[in-house]
């Protein structure tokens, strides 16, 4: 129901890891990509303008590649290229569901994706196209979490939704510590001070400086994207 979604333009951050099926050879889990694309379609049909930033950790991470002796900056470019692969997968699935999309890339790759052009991205969203931002920030030594916050600020999104494997921010990893405390609300300050690692510190600091709110939710729970947008169910709200 359109009245209950609080935001008119949102940015969804999907990690590469979320796309991966554990124990399988494929880097993309067909069931998960189906589920999340249906959920995106659902909020799209509610009139929400949507941007997506996708990670690349299911295919390649700079830090891992640098451990095998590849220069870190080059390794990070490998990671950025991985995000473009994921973006094209999400585009393909969304278009199967009849959702109009555009992929923009921070790394110029004309046959595959539009270059990142801020005003054009905004125009796409105004015209009802889901814009998938790929290539991260285009700079090594950054992450796609920073890209998500940056693009959300640049394109005047109301909020960033970060899909994770658990239903919000905890005082410690709830998969390891059963007594970890779940936060319904938490400040940027406290996240940085307590070193809570659901998102890198540079991204949290950028969000704080620009007062970009973030919702952290469990992307694997069906219906959780819409619930998060309606502030329903278990999730964490970060903001002032
Ligand atoms: N990356 C980068 N600059 C960016 C975004 C990403 O260098 O602005 C590289 C980095 O090596 C990272 C990889 O791309 O490890 C994949 O991105 P990320 O780890 O953020 O993906 P996720 O954890 O969301 O799957």
Condensed summary:
The chain is of the alpha/beta class.
Describe the protein's architecture and organization.
By secondary structure, the protein is an alpha/beta fold. It has a single domain (2-238), classed as Acetylglutamate kinase-like (Carbamate kinase, 3-Layer(aba) Sandwich). 38% of the residues lie in helices and 18% in strands. It has nine helices and eleven strands. It has helices spanning 16-19, 30-45, 62-67, 72-96, 118-126, 144-154, 188-193, 201-209, 224-229; strands spanning 9-14, 49-54, 101-105, 114-115, 130-134, 159-164, 169-170, 182-183, 185-186, 214-218, 236-238. It has a nine-stranded mixed beta sheet, with helices on both faces. Helix 2 (30-45) packs across helix 4 (72-96). The protein is globular. Bound molecules: uridine-5'-diphosphate. Uridine-5'-diphosphate binds at residues 15-17, 55-57, 61-63, 76, 79-80, 82-83, 136-137, 139-140, 142-145, 147. Homohexamer. One of its GO terms (molecular function) is UMP kinase activity. InterPro entries: AceGlu_kinase-like_sf, Asp/Glu/Uridylate_kinase, Uridylate_kinase, Uridylate_kinase_bac. ATP binds at residues 13-16, 57, 61, 164-165, 170, 173. It is an enzyme of class 2 (transferase).
